[in-house]
From TrEMBL:
Superkingdom assignment: Bacteria
Organism: Streptomyces oryzae
Tagged with keyword Acyltransferase: no
Role noted for this protein: Catalyzes the circularization of gamma-N-acetyl-alpha,gamma-diaminobutyric acid (ADABA) to ectoine (1,4,5,6-tetrahydro-2-methyl-4-pyrimidine carboxylic acid), which is an excellent osmoprotectant.
Recorded family membership: Belongs to the ectoine synthase family.
Biological pathway: Amine and polyamine biosynthesis; ectoine biosynthesis; L-ectoine from L-aspartate 4-semialdehyde: step 3/3
Catalysis performed (reactions): (2S)-4-acetamido-2-aminobutanoate = L-ectoine + H2O
Keywords, ordered alphabetically: Lyase
The protein, known as: L-ectoine synthase
Signal peptide (from-to): none
Pfam family for this entry, one: Ectoine_synth
Gene3D superfamilies given in the database record: Jelly Rolls (2.60.120.10)
This enzyme's EC code(s): 4.2.1.108
Length: 131
């Protein structure tokens, strides 16, 4: 059984910061469960262009208001608490946080905890052996 709190991982290597976001990595590849689980905050008024070329991501919105844009089709989706979206076909997409935006994110394959978005908005495919 694994039990963790945000409080205990804040300020540790499990808290990863980007220029517009903070991701608290609750479950990682080294936990050996087949997926990773993040509690992520995106700063109000910011935008992140992403392309998960190596991962599938499910996102469940906990708080805040935002917009998801499918950069391939131009479709826009309103994001608010209770909404879930899944990026399953490696779509290029943009997340716009109108307010402080907090979500739970699940990744497959699991993240190692060291990933940050590259110049294409993708996370590299890392394994525990890459340490």
């Amino acid at each position: 059984m694994i039990v963790r709190s945000l409080e205990e991982i804040t300020g540790t290597e499990r808290e990863v910061r980007g220029p517009t976001w903070i991701s608290r990595r609750l479950l990682l590849a080294k936990d050996k469960i087949g997926f990773s689980l993040n509690d992520t905050v995106v700063h109000a008024g910011t935008e992140i262009k992403m392309w998960y070329a190596n991962h599938v991501e499910a996102v469940y919105v906990l708080e805040g208001q935002g917009e998801l844009v499918d950069d391939e089709t131009g479709e826009k989706y309103r994001l608010e608490p209770g909404v879930m979206y899944l990026v399953d076909a490696h779509q290029r997409h943009t997340l716009r946080a109108h307010t402080r935006f907090r979500a739970v994110c699940v990744f497959d394959p699991p993240l190692t905890g060291r990933e940050v978005h590259d110049e294409n908005g993708a996370f590299p495919l890392l394994t525990e052996e890459d340490r």
